[in-house]
Amino acid sequence: MYIKIYKKLNNFNLDIEFSTDAKLLAIIGKSGSGKTTILRCIAGFEECEGSIRFDKEWIGLETQKRDFGIVFQNYALFNNMNVLKQLLFAKNDIQKAKYLLQLMELEGLQNRYPYELSGGEKQRVALARALMNEPKVLLLDEPFSALNYELKQKLYNELEIIKKEFDMQIILISHDIAEVHRLADEVIEIEEGKIINRFKPGKLPIGKVVEKKEKEMIVECGGEVYRIFN
Questions:
Q1: pTM of the model
Q2: Domain span at 178
């Protein structure tokens, strides 16, 4: 994966370049740093300059021609479709849908509608739908932030299964450092549209909380100190 993105925003320039073979890359940073904009540029929801290359160059490709799945914090499910139809809307493949329903432990819920599901169930449906086409890239925009601890742990397990079962690049936007430590193979921290830190496996930013403020934590790990934004 290689990404070099330029984009002029209202109050700063997004100027990001990175290349990684990490199975799951996490991008962290405070609100307004450009995290979600990176995902939107990858998906083609926003125009940008530079290069976005996975199997091929994506800059210039229409959104529908980019091989990605995406899961938002608010699930983005269709209110008038039951669980099975949500998946079949992405791809009309009943066998694939049944496989993903089983993988995500949703078999008994296939005829239910979004209003009949819990937050964790909705998130599992959104993940299953995003996987229907076996995308080259799975984009996750703070998908677990509104869930309680127990539901998060269950979905972390599901995501680890996805990492093993599917050959895809996963990019996770998160502000939860424990989540990042649990899931990520590599972490990029951005601030004001630029990369300020990169963390490899074994050196992820988690450890003793030295100080906790309203919008950030100071964390000591391996003799080094990191700022973690909420």
A1: 0.83
A2: 2-67+135-202
Number of helices (H) and strands (E), helices first, in the chain? 6, 12
C-alpha to C-alpha distance for 135 and 54, rounded to whole angstroms: 11
Q: How many domains does the chain have?
A: 1
Q: For residues 100 and 80, give the distance between their C-alpha atoms in angstroms, rounded to a whole number.
A: 21
Enclosing H/E stretch for 101: helix 94-103
CB contact at 8 A, 176 and 31: no
Tens digits of residue pLDDT in 29-40:
888 888 999 999
Q: Which helix (H) or strand (E) holds 14?
A: strand 13-19
| Cα distances (angstroms) measured from residue 50 to each of 6, 7, 20 | 6, 9, 17
Beta strands across the sheet bearing 24-28: 68-71, 137-141, 169-173, 24-28, 186-191, 194-199
